[in-house]
Amino acid sequence: MKLAHLNRQFSFHVMFIIAALVVCSVAVAADEPKAMRSFLESHCYDCHDTATKKQGLDLQSLRFDLDSYASSQAWEKILDRVRAGEMPPAKSEQPAPAERATFAQSLHDAMYQHSKAKQQTAGRTILRRLNRTEWENTVHDLLGVDMPLAFLLPQDTPMHGFDTVAQGLRLSPLHMEGYLEAADIAIAAAFDLNDAPKRESKRYTYKEEKGIRENLDTPEGKVTDPNSTSKHHIIFGETDDAVIFYSDTYSPTHLKQFRPNGSGLYRFKLSAYGYQSEGRHVTALIYVSDHRTTRLAGYYDMPPDKPRVAEFEIELAHNEHIRIAPYDTGYDDKGKNIWAITGPQFKGVGLAVQWVEIDGPIFEIWPPKSVTRLLDGLELKELPANKRPWRNGRKAAYEIVTTDPPRDLARLIERFAARAFRRPLQTGEAQGFVKLGADALAAGQDFEAALRLSMRAILTSPQFLLFEEAPGKLTDHALASRLSYFLWSTMPDEELLKLADAKKLTDAKEGARTLATQVERMLKSPKASAFTTNFAGQWLDLRRIDATSPDARLYPEFDELLKHAMIGETEAFFDELLRYDLSVSNFITSDFAMLNRRIAEHYNIDGVTGEQFQRTKLAADSPRGGLLTQASILKVTANGSVTSPVMRGSWVMERLLGDPPSPPPPGVGSVEPDTRGTTTIREQLDKHRNVESCASCHRKIDPPGFAMESFDVIGGYRERYRSKEKGDRPDWTYKGRGIHEYKLALPVDASGQTADGIPFKNIREFKAILMTQNEQIARNVTQNLLIYGTGAGIEFADRAAVDAIMKQTAGKDHGLRSIVHAIVQSEVFQSK
What we know:
By secondary structure, the chain is of the alpha+beta class. The chain folds into 6 domains: about 35-120, no CATH class; about 130-195 and about 390-470, no CATH class; about 200-360, Galactose-binding domain-like (Jelly Rolls); about 470-525, no CATH class; about 540-660 and about 685-765, no CATH class; about 775-825. Helices cover about 40% and strands about 15% of the residues. The chain contains 27 helices and 23 strands.
């Protein structure tokens, strides 16, 4: 009955949203400039008429229909290319400067007037909903809970590179199912009226762990090889104070003695050290598992022969457990690993674990703050042990005390709705939600059940799911929401909402200063990590880190820890620029990198220790520095076996320069990867570069890709390609033994010349050339931040706002923090 009611309610919501979207789609007619066709007839139709259609462009038939996205994009490209002198091409007869200027200005004015009129009528951003990450974060903050919820919702569709853009955030019945399920789970966790889970603080040792104890009782700590019934191999050892973990592959090291007493925050201390590690640190990996899924919760470098106590906190569900595993262990100085040795003579590297201390679940009060927050002053009564009803498989220990259930229900629902909608309620707006709970009370449901039913309806309502913005300047509450979701990916906090209530964010005299103060406060908050994760993760394609798996034979050094270090480096680099307002030119090249021990070892950079990322000065001749040489970028722009200059060049053009290449002509085949070592990628690309229909694009795409060829698919520096067949054996070792998985084949050529004919020999020289386009990089960063923050693509009328931001931040050398501030102060950000 309840579900059917909510489904009917949601159907109404969807129809409301569709109607709103239709209303927002306003057409504004645009007249074609009179001087435009004569210019095209004189200088462009020879190559781009209906009969010729060079590069697929038919200007003769192209309508001046600026309400059509494809048509407006085509006219923007035409304007930009004519202004840049790229059209007509250099070999053709050129128009007089005055004629070119007249054409460009008339086209610009017509497009600007059309775009501006459309924005004034309907706004830039169509009605959009919270994406799955924002929904989860908002529910967490609203209810005071912390649990995975986003995985229950359908994947969002990115548009213009981001999942915050309204065009990709549609609604469907599948969303309804996910919202209902996720809301039920979150609300149930928030109303935890059971007995307080028993908090325990206990120290565990693996010497007492069943299974490991049995293995330690055998001679020299042997264990049966899981792939053999006849041999024994050493995967554990023992000292007076520790158990030695040798195997970094098969490692049955679950701490079975520990079981969470309940879901919540647990504080851990781990004492361990590197054993027989020849002076180097050994990493301890901390995994959390619920027997279905496993996640890496953290990793800590343990020093050789001297214990370190690592302290960390982990949110655990009641059905999860932990496992501590060694990393890069189990081999000796001769390169033999534990599976090649069957006697007690193993002298290889291990992780010595002394003890694990666990305290939790940690809570300040009980029932938890989430309950008192939602009940807003209503008291709780502890029930006698023999009168506790069963709820969700457990006996409830408390009940809500109310002397006037209908009145208290209405008060709590109105308060909750106002917080959920992130603004004051309109008259009678909460009436439907209150009635839903009141009807449940009248039908015999208890107060808690009725309250939860109304709350679930609120969490699936249009007012909660959507950003309510009217055309024109945003209200204080709409601006507070836009700012909070921009920097925190969640709802505004109490301070921001109070400022909105007082209308101080849009105040004519103090609004700008107030906003600047809030931006600084918010960027200093731990919540700002969401900005780095969600903006940089999408702009730089970091979310695609698992899209390919490196070939284990060609790249045996790739592992999970390196993957985490790759992402960590790039996020730490973005954070460093943001924290210290460093110029976005550092995205091209920098004299520092953000490294921890794992990524520094991968780059062959000495002197970096520990798992924390730290600013590291680079040598003057280092090829590193900037985004183009970071392993995360190099991995997401390659497949699992070979690199592609086309893929990497396209990434540079689109992600850094904001000039995405045109799609390839129909029928052009892709380059097949060659792992045999017989040809280079440059030789394979010649067939594309020598085709006229391909050459113009490849002149732009290939140079950055060729410059990045000195780096393999996992970001390692190379001078020769790796192959499985042709080539020489490497003269270095991996885990103490020679390389047998791959060979070194043909040499890498990282030279080339830009589309403008400027030659370069390597990545350093190419980055120096790219630095001459620093303004374009800054413009592209600004545009991407505007798209992400406002939920809409850049329209033609927005170019003036981008120009203003560029001018405003030029004095700070386009510092990243300065750009964020300027965006928040801009009319584009503060308007629908």
